[in-house]
Every structure is written in C-alpha cells, then in structure tokens.
Amino acid sequence: MTAGSDLPLVSVPRSKNPLASRRAESSGAKKQRNRGIQVFLAIVALVWIFPVGYALLGSFRDYAYTAKNGYMSFGGFTLDNYKNAWQQANFSHTMLNSAYITIPAVLLTLFLSCCVAFVVSRFSFKFNLALLGMFTAANLLPPQALLIPVYRMFRAIEVPFWFSDSGTLLNSYWGLILVNVAFQTGFCAFVLSNYMKTLPRELYESAVIDGAGVLRQFFTLTLPLCRPPLAALATLEVTWIYNEFFWATVLLQSGDKFPVTSSINNLRGQFFTDNNLVAAGSVVIALPTLLVFFLLQKQFVAGLTLGATKG
Amino acid sequence: MARKYKGIDHLTPVDRVVVGLMIAVPTLLVLWLVWVPAIGSVLLSFTNWDGIGPISSAKNVGLKNYTDVLTIYPPFVPALQHNLIWLAVMFLIATPIGMFLAVLLDREVRGSRVYQTAIYLPVVLSLALVGFIWQLIYSRDQGLINSVTGSSIDWYGDQRYNLWAALIASSWRHVGYIMLLYLAGLKGVDPTLREAAKVDGASERQTFFRVVFPVMFPINIIVLVVTVIESLRAFDLVWVINKGRNGLELISTLVTSNIVGEASRIGFGSALATFMLVISSIFIVIYLRIVMREQR
Fold first, then answer.
1. Among the listed residues B125, B82, B83, the one whose alpha carbon sits nearest the alpha carbon of residue A5
2. Between vectors from CA A61 to CA A57 and to CA A63, what angle results, nearest 5°?
3. Chain centre distance of CA B247
4. Judging by beta carbons within 10 Å of its beta carbon (0-12, 13-18, 19+), is residue B215 exposed, middle or buried?
5. CA angle in degrees (0–180, nearest 5) for A90-A92-A96
6. Is position B35 within any domain?
7. Which candidate from A22, A152, A279 shows the least CB-CB separation from B108?
8. pLDDT tens, residue by residue, A186-222
9. Which residue of B57, B108, B109 to mutate against A (max A Cβ within 10 Å)?
C-alpha cells in the first residue's frame, strides 16, 4: 500500500518466519519435476528482476552514446547521470523532506498503535472489538474519497507560524504526518493487539501486585516484550510512508516541501526527457527502500505477512 | 508504596485517566482524519457547494450531483470501465499468477529463496516509481520495446495501449505481493492434512484443490479483498504517467482532478468519492468479518 497502496494481513505474529525452510523430500520422478519447476522459476525470477536491472544499466550510460548507438549497444558508461539527476531532482533537499515526514510519522504511528493495542488487549471493555474494527477499516478506505473534507479542513485550520510556515495545516509537514499516522495506526494497532494478547496475564498480575501503575506496566513490561512485532512494523511503515505519494502530492503544494516520492516528476524535462537520467533518478529514489529490502528482508516479510497463519 | 491488591483489572483514578488518554488520542485522530471526512464526503455530495463561499451557503440539491455524473460527465463511464478492467486483470491474471508462483515456491526446490526474493522485489517500490521504471521500457523514442521491435508506438501516450501498459507495470508489483501473502498462507497449512490426503491416494493437484485451497479460505478472502481495494485505489501509477487523462481515467483520478485542479467542483467530486466509499465499504465489511472472527 504506497502507504495507501499496501494492505495489511491479519492475525498473530507469533509464527516463525513464514518463509523458513521446510525440508524437501525427493525421489526419482519428483526430482525430475522439481528440476522443471526450478528452471521455470528461474526464468520467472529473471523476467521479474529485468526492469530493475535494465534501469540500473541505463542509469550508467551516457545519453549521447545511447542516442547514437541505441540501447542494444554496449559502452558509453558514465556516472554523470547520477550527478545530474541529483541536481535536477534536488535530491539532497527532497531526501531530507522525506526524513522529516517519515521518521516522526513512523514513531508516532507505532506509539499510538501500541497505546490502542495495549488497552484493547489488557482490559476487556465491551467496545474493544468495535474500536479495533474502526481502526482497521480506516486503513482500507480509499484516500481519494476523503480528500475534499481533509483538504478543506486543513486549509481552514490556522496554526502558528513556528508550527507551519504556511500558517495552515495545508502545506505543512505536520498536516501530512498526521494524515499518514491516522491511516497507518489501524493496521499497526491490529497487529500489535494480536501480539499483546499472547503475552501471559500472570506478568501483569505480578506487576500489579508489585504496585506498578498502568503507565509502568506499559513502558517497562509490554513495550520491551513487543520488540519483534515493532521491528517488523517499523520496517514496513518506513517503506510505506516513504513511498506514500497521494497525500504528499495533494497536501503539500509548494515544491520545496515535497518528499522524494512526490517530487519524482522533477526528473522529467518539460519538453524533453532523458531516459538515462530518469533511470539514475529512479535508482536513487529506490535506494532507501532497496536497502531496507536487502538488509531487513526478514523483518519486511514478517511485517507484510504478519501471522497470515496462526503458527 | 504498597497498594492493596484489588485484582488485575482494578484501576486507580490516575490509571483511569492514563487509559482514557491512551485510547482517546488515537481514536480522536482517526475519527478526525478518516471518519469525519468520509461522512463529510457523503454529505457534500448532496449539496451544490462551490468551495468558494462559506459552507453555510451550500444548498441541498438532492441527487442532482449523481445524475450529473451519470448524464453530463463524459469521463465517468470510461473511468468506470477502466476501473473494472483494472480489477478484472488484477483478479483474473495477476492474482492467479501470484498464487501459482507461491504454490511452486512452496515446494522448496533448490534456490527457492532467491527466486522468491526476485519476484517480490517490486513490492518495496512505490507505484509512482514503478511507473517511471517502466517508462524506460515503454517510452516512444528511447524505450526498450520500440528499440527492439522498431515500432514507434507511444505506449504510455496512445489511448489504445496505455491502459494495458499501466496494467502490466501494476501487475508486476501485484504478483509479488500476492505471492508473498499466499506463500505465508501455504506455510501455515497443517502438514498432516497433506499427509492424510497423500495416504488416501490423492494426486498433488487433487490435494491442492480439494484440501489445501479450501483450508485457506480466510487467506483467499483476504487476497480477494486486497485485490479489489487495490484496484479501486489505483492512483499513483496513472497519476505519474499523465494525471489520469487520455485513456487512463480512473475514478480516483477524476475525484482528485475535480478538487485539486482548476475547476474545483466540490459536490460533484464528492458524488464520485461517495461512489468509491460505497464500493470499498462492502469489501471492508467482508474483510472485517473474516479477521474479527479470529479475534473472538
């Protein structure tokens, strides 16, 4: 869900990594068939990786060279595209903007969803399920359908200038951060509450007997125990909010506040587009998420499939 | 200070305030930024508010905006068609491919992990970026397809092709996502079920369709809902291509251009928004029923 475009899965994250190996048993004919499957999958994998590989290759090629010799040629390698793309798309600026938006949004989302999940799983109120439903459904509504009222409200709400230099929530980082938080809290709260329900109640019992109030139970008991789902959710949310396109495009109107993903059109020239430059820019934009992908793959997958199964 | 133990759920006055805040702050935020706007869109769709005067000047016009959308708004029918085509392609082509790849990957042939990684790599990319990456393949003058085939079709620009070009790019990402969800589901199927089917002499195909597939009912529904909602929310990809014009109209882009664009037609845009809300709520209810059942 861009933040919007990825949807959550359900249930309990206590299962082990869903992609963990299962022993494959093999025998004669089966071996033959597995060979076939292996070849087929290898081809599919190559096809799937191709667009990214092609972008990577193009990003290192000189435009004049490919214009003259075509893309089927070999040679003309250069790093200039990166230098030019970096300047043209103003990446040093937009990367910072992305950080200003993504980091607070992820922290706030995780904190608020921990709060909701804690109350819902720790105490049994009648309205718990309805509450959780309200949060989860919020995550699935099409953001475009909410645009008019959000846009109008943000334009009408005046805030001090130290808070937003536009004087309203529209065109301010905080407005965008809050919208992202509101949309993402549902999914995280749902996943976290499932996890917290698996924590043994005896833990709380002894904490209460020791005289720990709710706040202390939350900070010293629940949160440290929730490190695994929090790590997975943090990885996932960083990717989603970094990738978020729609709200950033419509709520931030001045180009100097755009995060990386929404300023993607800067790569296109007004009259002429240099595709090698576009390729280099795309690689730069993809880099943070690709790093997440390669370094935190396990967390990412775990987050996305969080207990698709009750393990 | 030792408190008298009055049971695990007993709350002191301070605790009550803390619990209240923990639930109230997030709830108010979500109500304010998601649910109030959702209701607002529905209400505005029955008014003629122009967005310029005060909101109190808006008059109730009944269903006029809806009849206008249907009768005097040419892009609506194409947009609806495109959304339906989008859904059909995702549901009938991309989703089954994702499922099929998951079933193959689940067999743990050598190198599964590597193949799986390659196939879900696009999932970490934003759809806006996916649009740009595919531009390198589709572009008229510098694109790969035209330089290999020698044709001069503008794949993103030509009305006859651009929807399909966008759908291929979108499927590229969707397949990986569905594959991942489904693979996780398959790993969770009780292995003894397969064993039992095998002992009973079922072929692998029979085992899958008669045993595994039915057991995965919740995952199947979730995959269905994910696909429908994603198709309805499709926006980023076509917006970066050409802001959803010229053969790429979608309901979501119509709503956006009616509000952000030059002509801000609030009531009208809200009628389109309400349409999206109604369809998505049907599937959200289905989704909630499935996932909440596990909660009880």
1. B125
2. 135
3. 21
4. middle
5. 115
6. no
7. A22
8. 889 988 988 898 888 888 988 888 888 899 999 999 9
9. B109
Residue B276 token pair? 């999206």
- What are the residue boundaries of the structural domains of chain A, listed by start? 2-25+91-304
Give the minimum alpha-carbon distance from B73 to chain A in angstroms, rounded to a whole number: 18
The terminus-to-terminus CA distance of chain B in angstroms comes to 38
Distance CA A34, CA B117 (A): 19
Report d(CA A189, CA A207) in Å as an integer.
23
User: Is B58 within the bounds of a domain?
Assistant: no
Q: Give the separation between CA B228 and CA B86, rounded to whole angstroms.
A: 9
Burial (CB < 10 A; 0-12, 13-18, 19+), residue A69, is: middle
Number of domains composing chain B: 1
Does residue B9 have a pLDDT over 70? yes
Contacts of B273 in chain A (CB under 8 A): 144-148
**What are the counts of helices (DSSP H) followed by strands (DSSP E) for chain B?**
16, 0
The angle subtended at Cα A137 by Cα B16 and Cα B292, nearest 5°, is 75
**What's the token pair of residue B26?**
């997030």
The shortest C-alpha distance from A104 to chain B (Å) reads 15
CA–CA gap between residue B223 and residue B291 (Å, rounded): 12
**Exposed e or buried b for every residue in B81-106, given b needs 16+ CB within 10 A?**
ebbeebbebbbeebbebbbebbbbbb
Query: Which regions of chain A are under pLDDT 50?
Result: 1-26, 307-311
Q: Evaluate whether B253 touches A245 at the Cβ level (below 8 Å).
A: no
Q: What are phi and psi of B60, to 5 degrees?
A: -75, 125
Residue type, A269: G
- Give pLDDT tens digits for B193-224: 888 998 888 888 888 888 888 988 888 888 88
| Cα distance between residue B183 and residue A3, in whole Å | 22
Token code pair at residue A177: 């951060």
CA–CA separation, B26 and A35 (whole Å): 52
* CA pair distance B183, B235, nearest whole angstrom: 27
The answer to whether position B60 is within a domain reads no
CATH code, domain carrying B94: 1.10.3720.10
Whether residue B26 and residue A116 make contact (CB cut-off 8 A), yes or no, is: yes
ipTM of this complex prediction, to 2 decimal places: 0.88
Handedness of CA B288, B289, B291, B296 (dihedral sign): positive
Contact A38 B252 (CB under 8 A): no
Give the sign of the dihedral formed by CA A12, CA A10, CA B123, CA B273. Answer: negative
In a domain? residue B11: no
Q: For the structural domain made of A2-25+91-304, what CATH number should be given? A: 1.10.3720.10
Domain that residue B156 falls in: 77-293
For A163, list phi and psi in degrees, rounded to 5: -90, -40
